[in-house]
Amino acid sequence: MTQPTIVRYGELQPCKTAFIDAHTPGSNLKENFTIIGGGVSESADQFVHITESHGFNIGAAGQPPKCRNSLHSHRTAEVFWILTGRWRFFWGRWGDAGEVVLEQGDIINIPTGIFRGFENIGDDYGMIMAVLGGDDAGGGVIWAPQVIEDAKDHGLVLAETGKLYDTKKGQSLPEGVGPMKTLTDEQLKDYPELTPQQVVGWGVRRYWDMVALAGKKPLKVIGAEGIIRDRPGFEVDLITRGSATETPHSHDRPSVLMPVTGHWRVTWDGGSDTLAPGDTMSVPAGLSHAAVPSMSGDAALYHIVATDDPAGPSSLWPA
């Protein structure tokens, strides 16, 4: 039977020109990683570690202090959890509708249809992991108009096809292909200015609170019955030392294991291996497996598996 595929943290291959703000001061030092699926990169330089379809995409962003990701939106879910560092997430047309600061293990499910950005406000290089709904991740990124305009001043042009061209490298739009049009004032009315109470109250959960809630069974973090009630085409569970079990189980579709803290020994029919924070394991459909901490101390991991729900707008947003 097919074996799991592991992408080690130390072997991740970054893309430094993944998006239109890659040359814009304040955003030009970020690194983007596509771990599973095609992701939403606008650059042909992006390396995909695992191309097999999972029903969702897994990516990551690594940034030094004071580096930010510019305001953008997605048509499907965008869930982040913090691997290392201290991060400020902000949202709204100009990024001033609200903000929240997250640290290791914290998770945020950002409602679809709003502009959002994030920056590393810690003292060292930080990494956040991302889960995007759908195999095609909603067809790409929708940028706030000012992001596209600012990028032009620094040599990057986004084509209407969604492909990025770098004039600093002598690239130009192909004949017959125009630049990506910015959203009109009328179109911008479809992007609401949600309050902090709406975004944080619905979509943010703190790591240590989740560890306490997990008890003796995995905690459903995102799902129809999750502590974040949403059906974005995938479910997210938090498995802790107290809720881990050596009893093997399997899924009818690929699943993903991503340690937050501790080292985890994963066994399956025909083998075993150990995962550390930052590693990503894709477990094939139908493969019986189990994961338990291999050392003492705090240990938790996120488990992601697709559902039959369509990837799309947040589906259980509170009335």
UniProtKB/TrEMBL annotation:
Keywords: Metal-binding. InterPro entries: GPI/OXD (IPR051610), RmlC-like_jellyroll (IPR014710), RmlC_Cupin_sf (IPR011051). One of its GO terms (molecular function) is metal ion binding. It comes from the Bacteria. PANTHER family: CUPIN TYPE-2 DOMAIN-CONTAINING PROTEIN, OXALATE-BINDING PROTEIN. This is Mannose-6-phosphate isomerase, cupin superfamily.
